[in-house]
Amino acid sequence: MQINDMPFEDAVPIDGYGPNFFRVNGEVHEGAMLLIGPTPAAWGGYDDAASLLALAERVDFILFGTGPEMAHIPAALRSQLDAAGIGAEVMATPTACRSYNILASEGRRIAVALLPV
Fold first, then answer.
1. In the prediction, which pLDDT does 76 show?
2. Chain mean position to CA 111
3. Residue ranges of the alpha helices (H) in the chain?
C-alpha cells in the first residue's frame, strides 16, 4: 500500500483526539473545538450558534462531531444554519475528524465543530 501526503494549503489537519482533547497541528486543545482553516478555537457547543453563523460567508457547510456516537443537532440550530445558507453534516466525532482532514486537504470551504469523545 502506498501512503500519500495530503496537501493542506489553507488549513491544518486534526492530528488526534482523546478524552476531552483534540490535537491540531501539534497543539492540544481541551474541550469542544471549532476549526476553520488554520485557526482552532474553543467552541461553546450547541448553545454557541453565533460563532457558527459568523462563518456564513467563509464556509459552505459545517461538519459536526457529536461525540462518541452520531446524534442530531438541535432543530433550532439547524434552522438557523439553514437560514444562513450553511449546510450541516452530523457524524460521530472520530468520523468528523477524518472527514474534515480529507475535505480540507481538497481545499473545500468547510469548518468542523467538535464535541469531545
1. 97
2. 5
3. 49-53, 75-83, 93-105
Task: Please state the domain count of the chain.
Answer: 1
Q: Got the DSSP string for 13-36?
A: -EEEEETTEEEETTEEEESSEEEE
User: Can you give the residue range of the structural domain that contains 63?
Assistant: 31-115
Asked whether residue 23 is domain-assigned, the answer is no
Write the single-letter amino acid at 81: L
End-to-end CA distance of the chain: 30
Q: Residues with Cβ < 8 Å from 96, sequence gap 6 or more?
A: 63, 64, 65, 66, 112, 114
Running along the chain, 117 residues long, what does each successive block of 10 average in pLDDT?
59 94 95 95 96 96 97 97 97 97 93 97
Q: What is the DSSP letter of 10?
A: S
Residue at 79 is within a domain = yes
Strands of the sheet containing 39-42, edge to edge, are 39-42, 33-36, 110-115, 61-66, 87-91
Query: Is position 17 within any domain?
Result: no
